[in-house]
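Support case: user asked for a sample of complex input and structure output to validate their parser. Sending the pair below.
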Amino acid sequence: MVPVPTRSFEILRSPNVNEKVVISLIYPEASINDLLNLEKPSFLGALEGTPTYEGLLSVTPSPLGDGTFKTAHIAELKRCSESTGHLFRYFGGQVLVAKRLHFEDKLGVVPKQIPPVQEELRHIIQECNILYWCSTILTLTYHFIDSKMQEKGDPPFRIPRLRFVKSGFCYAKSEFSQSSRRGGHLLTRKFKETHLSSSKINRGYILEENITGRFVKYIGSLFPRPTTRGGTQLLSEAELETAEFLCFTQHVQYLQTKGYGYISDYQGSGDLLTDPQLMT
Ligand SMILES: Nc1ncnc2c1ncn2[C@@H]1O[C@H](COP(=O)(O)OP(=O)(O)O)[C@@H](O)[C@H]1O
Ligand SMILES: [Mg+2]
């Protein structure tokens, strides 16, 4: 079903400070076989069996980071009921990052714009899908590394232990469901795509753990090699070491997927990664 847009393109403005939101968490699959056999081919498919939660989200207006397609804002998830505790445990706290999607023209003449809400949600679900696939593929890469280390012993160098941020798909709506209004309980009904065509949905977010420290691009999407600049500065020695390790993971992934694909556009800070691309 193709939902009918409920608004035309809007200029990107400050997010609302307190919003009622519905959240679905992204749980990567343990095995890539499920993905390749197309049993659970997409995040949207996986969502069918996942509970959703309702909560209050307070988003800081000024962005923490600003990219070509998204802005990242510090956000606080407010406790709504006992079940919100599950979300806090998943994200490692109440403070997270809410990312908004936008479009801008290459010359920057027209202000950044947000597409109609249904289109915005579709793009956000696509971003979540890429995180879902890439988290699974990176876990698989570490399975390979760990099995080789069991076989051959530890290598004479440090192996970076990296992972993609814990993340969730989130949309803001003007009303809570009847059940949560009555009892303050979070929603645990199964996710249905039809929920997304509701006219009560105002906007969408990608929720992520907050990556602190210098945010760098280790590998871009054009070339499978370390970037010469990780942002505005050169990569530090430690960052370059991480970037070289990530190039190695691309080789492993290419072989593991029998040439189907590998992760690119590796970026983040410390042991956390986000916003990947999947080259196929
Ligand atoms: N989880 C995060 N924690 C902290 N900052 C982030 C996070 N994700 C993104 N950012 C910041 O927001 C910027 C844009 O986000 P990103 O997901 O890279 O979007 P784009 O698709 O525009 O590259 C990043 O360059 C970074 O500065
Ligand atoms: Mg980016």
